[in-house]
Amino acid sequence: MAALRQLLKPIVTPLVHPFRGSVTWACQRGILSSRARRFFPWGWVTEPFTIHGDGWSCRWFPTDFDTVGHRIFWSGFHQWEKETVPVILENLRSARCFMDIGANCGIYTVLGCTLNPQLKAVSIEPVPKIYAALKNNVERNGYSPRVQVLNLAVGDRNGVVPFHEAEDATQGSLAEQGYAGQKGKLIQVRCTTLDALVDELKIEPDFLKIDVEGFEHAVVKGAVEVLKRFRPRIVLEANPTDPADVVTEVLSAAGYNFYNITDSGPVQRPAVDPVHEFRNWLCVPA
After folding, report:
1. Residues of the domain holding 39
2. Of 75, 101, 132, at which residue does a domain stop?
3. What is the tens place of the pLDDT at every residue in 203-219?
4. Most buried among 37, 39, 51, 245, using CB within 10 Å?
């Protein structure tokens, strides 16, 4: 069967390509199961496509390493971060200044600018090739006038630091040995604290998304003044092996409440206590 499929592929692929846009629309709407990808060319996910929302749409320009874009092509937001996406989009609609810390290829930056014409954003990604993809998505959607795209890391210190560029493009981290055993290589990147960066850019952030593979605690430790002065709402990731007690300590001192984002919505908890099933948290100033 596999041999027959390979034989037919050069003939079938050009014939079905005109239906590519309709296929991704149907998959994103849940009309066609994402399992349909078995019957269509894998290469479709590396070509530009439209992301469809309720009354809005934007364009996406994926790369071969953009696994987030690949999943959205086949299933929209029915699988990827399905409980977290509505919470982030709700906050993006009302935000004025969004900082996307660990932006990867920029999905939340692009969605935020699409949903909220008044939004200004700072989108941060330390890995050069992913930064290039992020910048391309921002530019080709026409959002450059509203978005500053920065090639650096955010943590609890300023200077040039080692950064682990993982083979999995979603798993880059300040963990020099690789986050959770990820394979990859060390590169040198500029690192800054959020306090220093906000002061440098002269901005007033009111919403932060922090997804930095185990170093969320370092980001909030370097953001004491930002938390005190601007009181931003925060969505951050906390995995079971992460030092979430530090996140809890810093944010509690700043007067924040914690909500685990579940498939039933945000549920208030006394602390950021990582659970495997629901990894993302909404942190709100009291």
Report:
1. 2-75
2. 75
3. 999 999 999 999 999 99
4. 51
